[in-house]
Amino acid sequence: MTPVNSSINTVEAIFWLLAICYVIVGLTINVLEQFLPGFIRRLLFYGKISGNGSSKGDLMTLLLVPKSWFRHFYLFATIWGSIVLVVTVRTFSTGQIFTLFSDFLQYACGNQRTVQTTSLETIVGLLMLYFHILVRCFETHFTQVFSKKATMNLIQYLNSFFYYFGVVTLLVCNSQGFVPGSSPSQLRLQDISWRLVVCIVVFIFASYNQFRSHTILANLRRDRSGRVTTEGHFLPTGGFFELVSSPHMLFECLIYLSIFGVIYRNSSWLAILALVAANQVTMAYETHLWYRKNFPNYPLRRRALIPFVF
Fold it and tell me: Using CA atoms, how far apart are residues 298 and 290, in angstroms rounded to an integer?
């Protein structure tokens, strides 16, 4: 843990490290995969693009867990997000932060933090992130259909807990009321700017279309009555699937960009954007290659992540 007198934001530093590692490993796989052992791909990817079929006898098989365990870290994110939201509302309404939470931020994010976001920006950004977490928790429990054969490795599983711990923590750590010596500002509706309104509209648009994309994928494995009839992979159509192979990943990026638009002065969240971009771009590209390989008549007009561009 970070010493109390340290200026290092440990959580932010780990996010930057993960983003850099993701880019390096992803590029290495893309260029040199034929020379690499199979476990390297399974270290970075999960599900259908992880190459599970060639993992027998591989030490990595000892570290594989069901992909359906996605539900676990979204439950954790919901609990952690609820705690931080309650602490934030209490801090902003009373002007006093819990000593325990203040000490936690000192250890996790250092004591050299400066005020970079207002109380209004923080509460709006936190509510947006919390809503996103709740939707993903709902989707993984009631919408998505996970194949029993789909896996991810234990490192990815544990890293996801840290990820959701970190995104919530870094959102509030540089806010008025949470930086040592600062006080929260008054929350007033008249202070809501057009920037915040635009960001909220983009967030709603992206959230709706991500949910719709996940529903389209889930319905490929259900009959008209909603009963799961298969765990196979099929060609998704409709919605933004007509333009890109992974619209849910496109809208994940838009969701995080819209939240960052609200708290844009929070430099710690640049590390989160870097990791999200590295992860989603790499996953989307590999998913696109998988579709093209497994569906000979795959629509040529579809791009991997960004319509008409990439």
Answer: 10
